[in-house]
């Protein structure tokens, strides 16, 4: 394309590495376009970690959130009722 400033991806760039991994995982369509965004992969990572019982603060740090409250707000829908009850019991015991 004339005037196109896009350059081919360097073989060792982070984006290229992610695309290779996505291809190996079957996360690209027949035209080699990603089926999920990098942000979507990041969100999936956080969701899986929480679903497997990794503490919220650890997930927060892993994702690079400056404030664990951000992580809690984004992933609150993944917390089970038992976990929410446990949190409420902690604060209830302080009274």
Please state roughly what percent of the residues sit in beta strands, choosing from under 5%, 5-15%, 15-25%, 25-35%, 35-45% or over 45%. Answer: under 5%
Largest beta sheet, briefly? none
Question: How many individual β-strands?
Answer: 0
Instruction: Tally the helices.
Output: 5
Shape: elongated
Strand/helix succession: HHHHH
What structural class should be given to the helix and strand makeup? mainly alpha
Radius of gyration: 19 Å
Query: Distance N terminus to C terminus?
Result: 69 Å
- The helix fraction, in percent, is 55-70%
Low-pLDDT segments:
none
Average pLDDT reading: 83
Report a brief summary of the structure.
The protein has 95 residues and is mostly helical. It has helices spanning 14-24, 38-51, 56-63, 68-75, 81-92.
């Amino acid at each position: 394309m004339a005037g196109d400033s896009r350059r081919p991806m360097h073989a060792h760039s982070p984006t290229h590495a992610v695309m290779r991994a996505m291809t190996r995982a079957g996360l690209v369509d027949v035209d080699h376009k990603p089926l999920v965004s990098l942000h979507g992969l990041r969100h999936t990572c956080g969701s899986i970690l929480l679903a497997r019982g990794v503490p919220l603060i650890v997930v927060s740090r892993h994702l690079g959130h400056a404030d664990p409250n951000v992580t809690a707000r984004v992933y609150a829908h993944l917390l089970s009722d038992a976990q929410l009850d446990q949190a409420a019991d902690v604060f209830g015991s302080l009274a």
